[in-house]
Amino acid sequence: MRRPEYFRSRLDAMTDLRHPLAVLANRMPWKSTEATLTPISD
């Protein structure tokens, strides 16, 4: 049985980087967000 071709495609090739959510994701300050949300370990 042959697999569909969409399992071979890379996610970045399928994503429209002009989509508002993709634009927002590229503008998010991820490092500071992760640092704020990561619990402090002793």
Please, could you describe this protein's structure?
With 42 residues, the protein is mainly α. It has helices spanning 11-14, 20-27, 30-37. 0% of the residues are buried. The chain has one domain. The longest helix has 8 residues, at 20-27.
List the helices and strands and how they pair.
Blueprint: H1 11-14, H2 20-27, H3 30-37
Protein name: Transposase
Organism: Caballeronia novacaledonica
**String of helices and strands:** HHH
Quaternary structure type: single chain
Helix content: 40-55%
Distance between the termini: 52 Å
Cα shape: elongated
Average pLDDT metric:
82
Sheet bearing the most strands, described? none
Number of strands: 0
Going by helix content, strand content and strand pairing, the class is: mainly alpha
Keywords:
42 residues, mainly alpha
Q: How would you briefly describe this protein structure?
A:
The protein is mainly alpha-helical and 42 residues long.
